[in-house]
Amino acid sequence: MKTIAIFDFDGTICQSFDLIVACLQKKSPTQLDPNHLRTLPSKDVVKAVGLKLVDLPGMILSARKTFKENILTQTIVPTLKESFLELKKKGVSLHIVSSNSEENIEMWLENNGCRDLFDSIYSASTIFGKAKVLKSMMKTNKIDKDSCVYIGDEIRDIQAAKEVGLESIAVSWGYNTLDILSTCAPNYLCKVPKDIFELRCFQR
Question: Which superfamily does CATH assign the domain made up of 1-204 to?
């Protein structure tokens, strides 16, 4: 049984897809198609928007600022809080590793009555830096990879989990579509939040 669940934040917990697209649109010289973006891995999204890799740090800072300004308008994925509670009942420790800032995530969790459900929050400095943060988080908390699973809504989440040797759960309600998520071979696929705590990896 997995006793530790590490969640991505944007798209996986918080319904901020539209806000992220709005941030990308500000940087793009052409009109973006949100449905098309959902079929692309992050590196292809960067190309579609017309950004260069050197532009990403500034883009992330801008997005975090925009998120902070709109913190009270972002909603939690329906019924996901109930899934958190079910996992806690099973004795699972919950954590967050995200590209968003710890400050933004803290404020959002407090606003949605979820802060006390999570034992830690870690922030990646770039959108492609999650593997490094996952590894650091596991080392700091003395977490054995066999007891842990990473849950995300993007290809890069699944890739980061694989890079550090973690099993992964891909959720279909966030950024990338279920079809594109399937191509990166996550260990589990979830279509609705209740699927998470019913997975065999959380059963004794």
Answer: HAD superfamily/HAD-like (3.40.50.1000)
Radius of gyration of the chain (CA): 16
Nearest C-alpha neighbor of 170 from the set 200, 159, 93, 63: 159
Express each pLDDT in 32-44 by its tens digit: 999 999 999 888 9
Measured CA to CA, the distance from residue 83 to residue 140 in angstroms comes to: 26
> H helices within the chain, ranges in order?
17-27, 34-37, 42-49, 56-69, 80-89, 102-111, 130-140, 155-163, 178-182, 194-198
pTM comes to 0.94
Beta-bridged to residue 121, according to DSSP, are: 96
In b/e form, how buried is each residue of 39-77, taking b as 16+ CB within 10 angstroms?
A: ebebeebbebbebeeeebeebbeebbebbeeebeebebb
Structure letter (DSSP) for residue 139: H
